[in-house]
Amino acid sequence: MANLARHFVRETLLSRKPREWSLEISALFLSVILGISLLAWRNGAALLSTLAATPEGVLQRREYWRLLTAVAVHADVMHVLSNVILLTFFTYLLFGYFGFWVFPVLSLAMAGLTNYISLLTYPSGVSLIGASGLVYWMAGFWLSMYLLVERSVAPGKRVLRAVCLALLVLVPSTFQPNVSYRTHAIGLGLGVVSALVYFQCNRESIRAAEVVEWEEPLDDPGEILSS
């Protein structure tokens, strides 16, 4: 009996170059983040408190727009710099490979949900600002999609690469009392869940982008005896 032919995935959706305008979209989003942060710094605490997500504003007065404006405003230069590099990187990847409905639509919706869930865990008087929740959602989504989609790389290598990237970009070098690490965790968890749902809903189109190669079956050499 002839041996069965084996196949392997040579290319996937992620093997291709990101779509056109990916770099421009990433730069535009970065400009919006920097512009709103600079505007808040120039206008002082009044504008900052108006844009921040707070339990009083969101949960009591139902000012839900704060869930998104909080993503754009940052406390200071170091705060915004800690986010913009990763924001640029993940914006480029998510728009480039998954398109408009993942970034900005799904990404910003999940950033708002991340802030909302986080606020439910905090008492009155707390203000959430910054894009860290969005960054961690993007990281969770991208890493999960990489593991699910990139079948041209052996499973062990995929896991190793994902773990290394996660350790590099997600684990803080120092812990600060004014940083909401629970918002990071919520964003990361929602990113993983979002990726699983997205993959299941788009499995056929994602797999259709694969380039599969088949190995020629070997002829049956007959019975082989060893002495």
Helical/strand content category: mainly alpha
Radius of gyration: 22 Å
Largest sheet: 2 strands, antiparallel
SSE pattern? EHHHHHHHHHHE
Bulk shape: elongated
How many angstroms does the end-to-end distance come to?
23 Å
Q: Order of strands across the widest beta sheet? A: 1-2
Q: Uncertain segments of ≥5 residues (pLDDT<50)?
A: none
**What percent of the residues sit in helical stretches (DSSP H or I)?**
55-70%
Average pLDDT figure: 90
Strand content: under 5%
The tally of beta strands, per DSSP, is: 2
Count of helical regions = 10
Brief descriptors of the model:
mainly alpha; elongated; 10 helices; 227 residues; single chain
Structural commentary:
The chain has 227 residues and is mainly alpha-helical. It is 64% helix and 4% strand. It has ten helices and two strands. The protein has helices spanning 22-43, 45-51, 55-60, 66-72, 77-98, 101-120, 132-149, 155-170, 181-201, 203-208; strands at residues 7-11, 211-214. A two-stranded antiparallel ribbon has the order 1-2. Helix 1 (22-43) packs across helix 2 (45-51) and helix 4 packs across helix 6 (101-120). The longest helix has 22 residues, at 22-43.
